[in-house]
Design a protein that fits this description.
Elements: E1 8-10, E2 16-18, E3 22-23, H1 31-42, E4 47-49, H2 57-71, E5 79-84, H3 91-105, E6 112-115, H4 123-135, E7 142-145, H5 149-156, E8 165-169, H6 177-185, E9 189-193, H7 205-214, H8 218-228, E10 232-233, H9 240-247, H10 256-263
Parallel strand pairs: 3-4, 4-5, 5-6, 6-7, 7-8, 8-9, 9-10
Antiparallel strand pairs: 1-2
InterPro entries: AKR (IPR020471), AKR5G (IPR044500), Aldo/ket_reductase_CS (IPR018170), NAD(P)_OxRdtase_dom_sf (IPR036812), NADP_OxRdtase_dom (IPR023210)
Keywords: NADP, Oxidoreductase
Organism: Paenisporosarcina macmurdoensis
């Protein structure tokens, strides 16, 4: 049940992952990211998502250590995600990249490690490295990011372990219903990055109407929509009031009709790169 900020979904390997977390994409290394992470943990967040390419893992690690202390909780109470960057793909280099991320974060293990993008010809070996990390109990769960159905099928035909999570761009203008259905069918948890479309949806009139009915903000309505669709969500924010506001979504429910109205906003429109055509 999704009753509060600590509510979890159970991944197919039995690991519990919070439905809601903090993303730190484009949050600057140093005091900004430290405070952001620390504030989130203090306010009840139990999931933090970073990546090697964000170049802020050290600050995230510091924020985690300070946040745990301030909240009086242990490392085991927190779900920490990072991702292997495209330049480090390949079997040996992925194993090294994982250790580098751990060292920067100052942690002994990650709860989730993801392949960041489906780089053609390289993600199969990278997945094998993730399987090794997992089978050696060095990471609690493994998954992918930005994978379309055909990428998932490609990985799964040789995989010993099915990805536990697929983190993708997901918001009302890009509702990816086929991908969501496919992931649900294969017990792969879908997770939304950029759920608020980097703020571009906050002035949408339909969303404003629904928000008014519930006495909530547009951001809260979108994030609630994610959860009711069974999608884990990790909005980014550096401001304390926004970190608190984003997470105040467990005290209302969208009706079936409202869910449909929001789904009807889909235009298959991306703000991030297309996983089939990106070149980095």
């Amino acid at each position: 049940m999704m009753t509060n900020l600590q509510s979890t979904t159970t991944l197919h390997n039995g690991v519990k992952m919070p439905w809601f977390g903090l993303g730190v994409f484009k949050v600057e290394e140093g005091p900004e990211v430290v405070e952001s992470v620390k504030t989130a943990i203090k306010e009840g967040y139990r999931s933090i998502d970073t990546a090697a390419i964000y170049k802020n893992e050290e600050g995230v690690g510091q924020g985690i250590h300070e946040g745990l202390k301030a909240a009086g909780i242990s490392r085991e109470d927190l779900f920490v995600t990072s991702k292997v960057w495209n330049a480090d793909f390949g079997y040996e280099s992925t194993l090294e990249a994982y250790q580098t991320s751990l060292d920067k974060l100052g942690l002994d293990y990650l709860d989730l490690y993801l392949i960041h993008w489906p780089v053609k010809g390289k993600y199969i070996d990278t997945w094998k490295a993730l399987e090794t990390l997992y089978s050696e109990n060095r990471v609690k769960s493994i998954g992918v990011s930005n994978f379309q159905i055909h990428h998932l099928e490609d990985v799964m035909k040789d995989a010993k372990i099915i990805p536990m999570v697929n983190q993708v761009e997901y918001h009302p203008k890009l509702s990816q219903t086929e991908l969501l259905a496919y992931c649900q069918q294969h017990n792969i948890q879908l997770e939304a990055w950029s759920p608020l479309m980097q703020g571009q949806l906050l002035e949408d009139s339909k969303l404003k109407e629904i928000a008014e009915v519930h006495g909530k903000s547009v951001a809260q309505v979108i994030l609630r929509w994610d959860l009711q669709n069974g999608v884990v969500t990790i909005p980014k924010s550096t401001k304390e009031h926004r970190i608190i506001e984003n997470s105040s979504i467990f005290d209302f429910e969208l009706s079936t009709d409202e869910m449909k109205q929001i789904a009807s906003l889909n235009e298959s429109k991306r703000i991030g790169p297309d996983p089939d055509t990106f070149d980095f």
